[in-house]
Amino acid sequence: MLASKGAVVSDSRVMMRTLFSPCNISHISVISFGRKSSSKAFSAKMELSITRPDDWHLHLRDGDVLKTVVSHSAHHFGRAIVMPNLKPPITTTAAAVAYREAILKSLPANSDFSPLMTLYLTDTTSPLEIKLARESQVVFGVKLYPAGATTNSQDGVTDLLGKCLPVLQEMVEHNMPLLVHGEVTNPEVDIFDREKVFIEMVLSPLVQKFPRLKVVMEHVTTMDAVKFVESCTEGNVAATVTPQHLVLNRNSLFQGGLQPHNYCLPVLKREIHRQALVSAVTSGSKRFFLGTDSAPHDRRKKECSCGCAGIYNAPVALSAYAKVFEQANALDKLEAFTSFNGPDFYGLPRNNSKIKLSKTPWKVPESFSYASGDIVPMFAGEMLDWLPSPL
Question: Which residues form the Amidohydrolase-related domain (predicted)?
Answer without folding.
Answer: 55-362
